Structure formats: C-alpha cells, structure tokens
Amino acid sequence: MQQARQSGIRLLTLPVTRNNTLGDVDWATLEKLPDYAAVIASSLPDYRYVFDLLKQKNCRVVLVNSRPEYEERMAADIAVFHQIFPSRRPAVAHAVELLVRAGRKRLMLLHEGATWRSPIREAFREALAANGLEFNPDLELYSTDDAAFCRGRLEMQLVAELEFDGIVAYYASQALAAFRLLTDRDVRIPEDISIVSLADHPMLETNTVGISAVDLDGERIGRTAVRILSERHAAPARETIDFVTIIRNSIS
C-alpha cells in the first residue's frame, strides 16, 4: 500500500471467488475490472482461472509465482505476465539447516500441503536428506493457519509419544500454538525443542521466548510488484526475492 501511494497508484481489492472456494470465480465482479488495469495476482494455482480474462482486458499483471513447478505446463498462459519468485524451497532448506546447527535430529514439519507433492513438504524431505536426517512421515503434520486446530493436531502427536526435537512451522500461528502447547507440558524451548517459523509476525518477537523465522519477505514482494507495475518494460520482468532470517531465542 505504501509503495502504491508513493507511485501514485490507486489500489482496488476485488474478490475472485464468491465463497472462497477454489474455482468458484465471481465473474460478475471481475468483469468490472477496468481494461488495461494493473493487477497483482498473489498465487499461480489460485488465480489461474482468471488469467484469460486478464489478458482479454489487456491488464498489466504481476504474478507472485510461488509454484514455479507449474510454469512448464502453464508457460503459454503466463508468458506475458511479469513474475516474482519467492524463495520458498530455499527458505525451507535454511530453516532445517538452522535446526541441524542447533543439534536437532528429529524434525517435525507443520504444514498445509494437502498432497505429497506439496513444494513445502518436498523441500522439507529434500533438506532432511541433504543433512543426513531420517524422514518420518508421522512427523509431517497437516494443520491450517488456525492456532486451535494446530494445537489439537499436535496434542494427538504428543499422545502418540512421537519423539521430535525441532519444529518447522509454515505459519506463525502454528509456531505459536506449538510453543504454547509444549510449554504447557513443561517442555523447555529451546533447551528441549527448537522452533522455526516460515513466516514472521510481531507476536513471534513479543512471545515470552522469541521464535525464530525464515520469512519470505512479503513486504518486499509487495513493494517489488508495485515498482514493476509503475515502470515501463520492453519484456516481462522476472525477479527472485530472497528470504530473510530472523534469529530469536527459540533456537539454542
């Protein structure tokens, strides 16, 4: 928003779906999008249904492409779009490396990837292998961006007495839920278990034990998207945004 104001760009937020269900596109609302509008699409798989409409309206589009594995089969659909690539896989690998450096050997992933081929889950398994760690499928725990749901899922793992000494959480809410549940059980952070979040949040800093993060730097992604739209480009721009590491006390 700040970058847009500085660039003299007026922002308009339009709902893409009618009920937040993938593919249930609110075409009536999207038809109101002006021709030649500047558009930021924050996800390739979520917004692929509207790409044809955006091209028909000659929109200038910046696609935040966190799923480059889709690019080969969708190359023709997105060839005319500017693209920003967040460093998701390298961020997961770095989070695992931080835990390994802290002496952790049995790592759990809290994720929201519904399929085995989820890039976050794949990157986690690859990072374990690269660091000589064993992969245990029971330590890949599905959870949403909901602290209560995550706590319930994690409680089931504790009941099953699964052993782990490090956690990589996709959402900050998951990291906080894990911290609160574990400390309620008298588990010491970071002495017994270390935690790293793949998204930073002010509450991670103000938590009683600050929780480390390997953040995808959404603020920089937003600024970069607006900057690209405010510039003239002879060809579609391609930019990769590095992750940011914030070390706090949740890693010993």
UniProtKB/TrEMBL annotation:
GO molecular function: DNA-binding transcription factor activity; transcription cis-regulatory region binding
Transcription listed as a keyword: yes
Swiss-Prot/TrEMBL keywords: DNA-binding, Transcription, Transcription regulation
Domain Transcriptional regulator LacI/GalR-like sensor: 96-239
InterPro entries per UniProt: LacI/GalR-like_sensor, Peripla_BP_I
Protein name: Transcriptional regulator LacI/GalR-like sensor domain-containing protein
Annotated organism of origin: bioreactor metagenome
